[in-house]
C-alpha cells in the first residue's frame, strides 16, 4: 500500500502543473477595466512585406548545404540559448546523461545487493 501512495503522490505532483496551466489558458484574461483579452486584441493584423526574397543564413552556398545530413560550414553559431547547439540543448543533454547515470547506478547497486543476499542465504544454509 505505501508504494501506491508514493505513485499517487508522484502522479499528482507531475500532473498538477499541467492541469493548472491548461485551466489558466482556458480562461480569458481581463485587464483593470474588466475587458477580456479577446475584447482588446485587434481582429485583423496586416504586416507589410517589403522584400519577398528569402535569404539563407549560411556560411556557404545553399546548394552545397542541402542534403540529408548537415555538412560542415553550413550552419551558423547559436545566437540564443534555445538555438540549435545552444546552452539549453547542452543542458538537456546533461540532464539526460545524469538521468541515465542515475538509473544505471541504482540498477547496479540493487544487483549487487541481491547477489550479496543470495550469497548470504547460501552460506547460512537456507
Quick tags:
about 130 residues, mainly alpha, 4 helices, about 55% helix, elongated
Structure description:
- The mean pLDDT is 76.
- Helices cover 56% and strands 0% of the residues.
- It starts with a helix and ends with a helix.
- With 126 residues, it is mainly alpha-helical.
- It has helices at 2-26, 37-40, 62-65, 87-124.
- It is built from 4 helices and no strands.
- It has a domain at 1-41.
- The protein is elongated.
Task: Give me the secondary-structure topology.
Blueprint: H1 2-26, H2 37-40, H3 62-65, H4 87-124
The percentage of residues in β strands lies in under 5%
Give the number of DSSP strands: 0
Question: So what's the overall shape?
Answer: elongated
Average pLDDT: 76
Rg, rounded, reads 28 Å
